[in-house]
Amino acid sequence: VIKVNNTKYGYSTLNKNDKKIYKKILTAINNMNQTVDFAKYKNVKHLMNIYKVVLADNPDIFWLDNTISSSVETYNSKVVKSSLKFKYTYSKAKKDKTQKKIEAKAAKILKNMPKSDDYEKAKYIYGKVVDLVEYDDFDTSNKSYQQMVSALLNGQSVCAGYTKMYNYLLQKAGLQAMYVSGKVKGQSHAWSLVRVNGQYYYSDVTFGDK
Questions:
Q1: DSSP-derived pairing of the beta strands 134-135 and 78-88
Q2: CA nearest to 109, candidates 64, 62, 148
Q3: Distances (CA, A) of 33 to 37, 58, 67, 69, 157
Q4: How many whole angstroms from its chain centre is CA 40?
Q5: Could you give the dihedral angle defined by the CA atoms of residues 111, 117, 121 and 122, in that order, rounded to the nearest 10 degrees?
Q6: What's the 3-state SS for 133-191?
Q7: C-alpha count within 13 angstroms, C-beta hemisphere, residue 186
């Protein structure tokens, strides 16, 4: 059974049953399963909402194509099961190899992080992301720009990659961090919800670099 630590804000807001669904979806994605099934579950929209929480909580999921579909199987007008179907942009071998690179790079970045309070840790990580990544929206069709790999390993990304790298490093440092998306001046944008010394703040690392 997969364990979810206290750096996952979205998970902490769910009820007991939804936490089980969250874990099942996360386990399926980590195992690169093509589908995850829920017997007699009628509310597919709710499953999709929990799926979104999983992605918002877990910036390290870089091998998943954001294209997802759902289906409902019925028999005699009764729901037998509901399913979520996933697509992946990496093979398992490439995923595992990339994860090792990510972990090594993260360890190098965090090596000199202050060991004091949450604010100093968050400030240090914010500065590192700004220093190491360049904003580049030239190729908006590049799906890798929506994942932290583009920022952490390649040093070029858009707001999604910036935010996921930032959140990943914050979580590695033991801080709660969640991906938030919305509109800024009419444009789609992403930023972070971060818990610092017991208080929640919005933090936008992309704007720190523009």
A1: unpaired
A2: 148
A3: 11, 17, 14, 14, 28
A4: 28
A5: 170
A6: CEECCCCCCCHHHHCHHHHHCCCEECHHHHHHHHHHHHHHCCCCEEEEEEEECCEEEEE
A7: 0
Confidence of residue 1 (pLDDT cuts 50, 70, 90): low
Of 65, 8, 54, nearest to 32 by C-alpha is: 65
- Give the pairing type, strands 134-135 and 156-157: parallel
User: Which two tokens mark 78?
Assistant: 């009764």
Question: CB–CB of 63/95 below 8 Å?
Answer: yes
Give 38's strand partners: 82
Question: How many whole angstroms separate alpha carbon 170 and alpha carbon 118?
Answer: 9
CB 43 within 8 A of CB 2: no
pLDDT reported for residue 132:
96
Q: Say if pTM beats, i.e. exceeds, 0.90.
A: yes
